[in-house]
Amino acid sequence: MAYSSQGTVNPLLITGTYNKILIDNRTFLDRCYGALKLRPQQITGEMLQIGLDIMNLTQLDMLNDTAPLWTIGKHVIALVQGQSQYVLPPNTNDVQSAFYRTMSNLTSSSTITQSTASYQWYFPAGATAVDTISLNWPSSSFPIQVQTAPDGATWTTVYSSGATTLGLTGNVPYDIDNANSAIYWRVIPATTLNGLPISPANTLPITLSGQVYNTPADILMSRLNKDDYWNLTNKKIQGRPLQWWMDRKLDPQMDVWQVPDATAAQNFMVVWRQRMIADPGSLQNTIEFPPRWYLPFLYKVAAELAFCTPEVDPSVTSQITSKADLMYRRALSEERDKSPVKFQTNIGVYTR
Q: What's the pLDDT tens digit per position in 289-306?
């Protein structure tokens, strides 16, 4: 209870903030070693470097248990006639679901204006919704922004590209979410990436071309195991791809079947993938974890450090391992979207 200068009672104030716990990795490791009953004076530079390595290995090992919800995201791939293999971003761990997407191409109903500063579509019939923009990059792609305007002068940014669309050539699709209909749409080079300025500034290739689409319709594609895919008699038959196999090699890729034909190549494949958790980086960076995972991850790292730190008392190792296991199980049980679970009974009769 607090008192004002006049002696009246004032209620204690809460912060009113609900932010992530953002501390640098040096502080995080100090807390890990503190859980192991080590004093700050005992923590050497070598121990901090070992701690960073253990943090990285521990979060990579987590991918063997679950798919952290914050690492699942959408990746859109342009289909190519006759191409069966599609390389995924290098930080891909697995694919949750894939969809064959058909869309309406609006490009012919627009007037295109192009320069090295912008690539613009004008819809003379009126405001038009655009759900996907596909750019055909003649050279390596770089960060872009998509903007809309009612008059060709007052521009509003509705989309900024991320790391998964960098360094690519050919058709690169960009999904535009939460954008209203507009008469003018344009693509411009982004000036920042992850909050950092891009220098030197990029300019759009003069040979760049673009298509605009709306009214997406996603059709679920079925996942094949390796035996079913390998046993396909004709892996090169062309048609509409509605099945896929995930080849989880060092550079993960998806093999689709049937191979896209000329019609399917006008459409896209939407992949919901699980990526790896961002590397810890240096002592000045921070971990990529939501607040609910902060303490379980701290104790999990501390438990791993206990086995490679001679200064830790063996009795502490046993205690910290037990606590880490309990907290990790609790965090895993909460890693869910709380949607309803449905069971569908499918009983069939075997016939020759």
A: 988 899 999 999 999 999
